[in-house]
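Recall that a protein's primary structure is simply its ordered list of amino acids. Everything else, from secondary elements to tertiary packing, is in principle encoded there. The following example makes that idea concrete.
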Amino acid sequence: MAINPLDIIKQFGNMQEKMGEVQEKIRRISATGYAGGDMVQVELNGQMEVLKIHISREVVDPKDITMLEDLVRAAVSDALVKIKEKVREEVSSLTGGLNLPTGFMGL
């Protein structure tokens, strides 16, 4: 079976266009991670940037900064898990459901 190089170039162009669309969608998605019974919330976008952090007054204890640090870390970790799953779903729609290797695109 002969491979037509022009078909490959055309498919590559289509893939680049789809990747641009997926990257734009990824920019718009967000996920919020929670810790401490929702007293600490961290919102991330699809580019893994922190959009917002909310810390309830009840969890702020100047004598126990370590607990607050742990709650912030837990909320960030929760948000990362959620946003990576949303990004993986978006990329999967581009690849037609093809299972991507672990670590592909940081996922």
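The longest strand covers residues 30-35. The chain is about 50% helix and 15% strand.
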